[in-house]
Queue: 2 jobs
Job 1
Amino acid sequence: MSVAVSFRAAAVEDARAIAEVHVEGWRWGYRDILPATVLDTLDVDERTARWTALLTDPRPGDRRVVAVDAGGPIVGFVATGAADDDVAPPPEGAGELFAIYLRDGWQGRGLGRGLLAAARRSLAEAGFAVAVLWVFDANERARRVYEAGGWRPDGATGVHRFEGGERAVLRYELQV
Ligand SMILES: CC(C)(COP(=O)(O)OP(=O)(O)OC[C@H]1O[C@@H](n2cnc3c(N)ncnc32)[C@H](O)[C@@H]1OP(=O)(O)O)[C@@H](O)C(=O)NCCC(=O)NCCS
């Protein structure tokens, strides 16, 4: 991992930077998975409003960790909390990894693994013994990183729907 990058808890003031990373992460990470028409409609202002609300009024167990480059900018983030899964019921009292994203150009340096380790610490610290996450079936890079971090497919499957199509998603589980 780049020694210049450190991790810290997110603050409300980070909402816009997190939204930018979120949109950028979708655009580069899902380039070969989702149509450009979907990626083009992502809106940083709209995501900023959502992240501002989430960070202002966290639910019990919510944790957000940002990866910060030495110069100041946020280059990645991970969000965890109590599982919110309406597709297939997760184990009782499970946590969930909701989102993990890096800016374009920051992948492949171990930062994904670093954020994943931070997520595990967050989940443990919040008292979750087991956690789940959803990932696109086709997202091979992320799935390799999750598997290296001890996450395993738990057999649950679903679909992510968007206007004009859908993509298969898989659920992974971690014994925290
Ligand atoms: C998913 C994501 C956060 C993972 O982060 P990442 O930076 O790609 O992950 P890492 O760098 O930790 O690992 C990726 C590869 O780099 C390698 N690597 C790790 N440390 C390294 C280092 N110091 N130097 C060079 N390579 C390194 C890893 O071995 C791994 O190789 P592999 O893919 O052949 O197994 C990132 O790819 C991302 O933001 N993707 C787009 C959004 C996304 O898909 N999010 C997941 C939603 S479910």
Job 2
Amino acid sequence: MQELINRLRSLERFIVVSHIQPDGDAVGSLTALTLGLQQLGKTVLPVLADGVPPSFQFVTGTLEVATEFPPLTIKDPYFCIAVDLPDSRRTGFGSNVLEYAEATMLGFIDHHPLGDLQKKTSDYYHSLNTSSCAELIYHVLLALEVRITPPIATALLTGMYTDSGGFQYDNTSTETMEIGADLMRRGARLRTIVDHISRQKSIASLRLLGLAMERLTLTNNGTCAVSVITYDDIEKAGGTADDASGIINQLNVLPGPRLCMLLTESEKGTIRGSLRSTDHPDMRVLNVTNVAKLLGGGGHARASGFLVEGHLEPLEGKTNLWKVV
Ligand SMILES: [Mn+2]
């Protein structure tokens, strides 16, 4: 971490980038690091290929987040820092990020299994056993002697809250709770986070949740729970793919299955797969990253995802059975 801290201290121009389909940790980490570096008088450009989802705009507030990656300038270079992702492709600007790595400077802060970014730089701070990237950013900001203001504290707590399933998953450590308490002392608004994340569903998202629940099917002797949402469903519900995000967590509440999978046709011709595994007292947890990797995706042992081309069609004459074509 020290090399990264030295770079952050000594350089003046930064790009902070996170992953496509940004979640609370991506938006929270990006916002907190941007605000922290700006406080030190640095020029910082936050970038998200997919922009800030409406449900997380309370985190970014008045901060402008670009959706385009700036062109590479060698004369007056930016130090590009990727947060909450291990692999350049996950930024949505894969080749640009690799160009930065080859030509100027690149660093990253992350808690996923390592990917291609690690081969490109020694300026990184990585820990697998951490609730969220936001928890790592907290340590980075303290090392930089940034004052954790209420907006920074709320951004960090959002990342920790969402990546730990509201402090319910196994990645919630005593340190997570201690940092959470410290962030609340510094003005993080937990109530606002809960309100925006758990109490701001759209009608479209509830309709899609209803469909996903109705179609939920147990396979492999009850060890897998599977459901689907088609592009047609999203259109009929009057929503967007964003309305289907988070549904997987509401499906993954049965005691029997070890694996829960939701296939969502998020755009015409693109299927987003979300995978969750569940802890069983007498069984080793199924590492769903291995399944996601087989399909070109990635993530964590208990929560992973992938994108494949295709669309979903019902199997003729069967209820609740679908095929990818
Ligand atoms: Mn994360």
